[in-house]
Design a protein that fits this description.
single chain; alpha+beta; four-stranded antiparallel beta sheet; 2 helices
Length: about 210
């Protein structure tokens, strides 16, 4: 059985290699082959199809890249699968700042005497558009968006039909994958500073005032 590392890359409208939003997923319990890759791909397609309407107009969901690696391979690893998904045309025109993200968190079984951080993982979704904002006097995540994404995550699990194949949390410290048993989303936004954009202009006013 293999521990599988998956990188999902959503490019920006610029098409530049440096402009890309990347998520890293882990799966375990099945061989690193095309049959497993097809089910993992179906899991990801279900999840990201639900996410697409909420993506920032800065992103291009028609060219989502997926690379799958066997963690047992020596570094630098060569992917055993490379694919591109078309999730559909961008529909949003109102984006939030690129640094703004929403976090899907998950964990494996907790054990007494063992650090819980080694059993937790997360996916930072973004950049996003204004449809994820709640109708509130505070800048919080719309509960309908949270419900949509958690339902999509549950539906994605149904795509994994190979015996033993699961979404997992990878611990680089313990060098082990642990099956996910719980997932959640908070209504507070997260900040991913590396996704921020550089200024393209400056407006100045000079005195005397």
């Amino acid at each position: 059985m293999a521990d599988i590392l998956v990188q999902v890359s959503i490019p920006y409208f610029t098409g530049l290699p440096a402009d890309v939003s990347v998520n890293t997923w882990s799966f375990s319990g099945a061989s690193a082959n095309e049959t497993t890759a097809a089910e993992v791909g179906a899991f990801l397609n279900t999840y990201y199809t639900a996410l697409r309407p909420f993506l920032s107009p800065a992103l291009n969901p028609e060219a989502v890249g997926i690379k799958m690696y066997d963690r047992a391979d020596a570094e630098p690893r060569t992917p055993f699968v490379t694919a591109t998904y078309d999730l559909g045309a961008q529909t949003s025109t109102l984006g939030l700042p690129e640094e703004v993200a929403v976090c899907l968190s998950f964990r494996g079984v907790l054990e007494s005497g063992e650090p819980p951080a080694r059993r937790r993982g997360r996916i930072y979704m973004g950049p996003l558009n204004t449809d994820v904002l709640a109708a509130s006097n505070r800048s919080v995540v719309d509960p309908d968006f949270i419900d949509t994404m958690l339902a999509a995550y549950e539906a994605a699990w149904d795509e994994l039909t190979i015996a033993g194949l699961v979404h997992a949390v990878w611990s680089p410290t313990d060098v082990v994958s642990r099956p996910v048993v719980s997932a959640w989303m908070d209504d507070a936004f997260d900040t991913q500073r590396r996704r921020g954009v550089l200024a393209t202009g400056r407006t100045t006013v000079n005195g005397p005032f």
